[in-house]
Amino acid sequence: MGYLKQIDIENFKSWRGKQIIGPFMRFNCIIGTNGSGKSNVMDALSFVMGERVSSLRVKHIRDLIHGAHMGKPISNTAKVAMRYCTAEAEEIIFCRIITGNSSEYRIDGIHVTFAKYTEELEKIGILTKAQNCLVFQGAVESIALKDPKERTKMLECISQSKEYAAEYNKKKEALLKA
Ligand code: ATP
Ligand code: MG
Q1: What's the 87 CA to ligand 1 centre distance in angstroms?
Q2: In 23-36, which positions are buried (b, 16+ CB within 10 angstroms) versus exposed (e)?
């Protein structure tokens, strides 16, 4: 099973210039006072995992650039790179860069389309479309309060069990007939 090794950040939210978060262990805990940037770490991770801007607590992608929350972005770009270790590779670097009002995606330094980026993320078990790979502050309650069918749908999407539903039902029917 793979794991996150390190996040390299440049001018993203509360980080000015180039900063490194990590190296991470298999289990990590981030502590800090209110407003110190704990949720920004989750935002950086969500961002590099291809999350849509509306889920990142900002209106426009450029608002993610350091200083933009005060109307004074220090640059036109910001960058988050995720170093990930897999069973096959010691390190894969997924990188998302803010360019103007859009994003550029790179894998190991090579420019790729968003479709290719999410396809490669899926190979390491990160499902951008599931949206709930990361559980944010307040989300535990909203997940608990979901309609049971909605919650099942969400869990099926994350676990990808939906793909096996047809096969499962077929085998179940065959067993019942036997
Ligand atoms: P809490 O414990 O209250 O949840 P937290 O540790 O999760 O707090 P965050 O929400 O991660 O805190 O960070 C908030 C901080 O990030 C604020 O101080 C805010 O000024 C700063 N911040 C947010 N956006 C930017 C930005 N674009 N540039 C610089 N700083 C920013
Ligand atoms: Mg927080």
Answers
A1: 34
A2: eeeeeeeeeeeeee
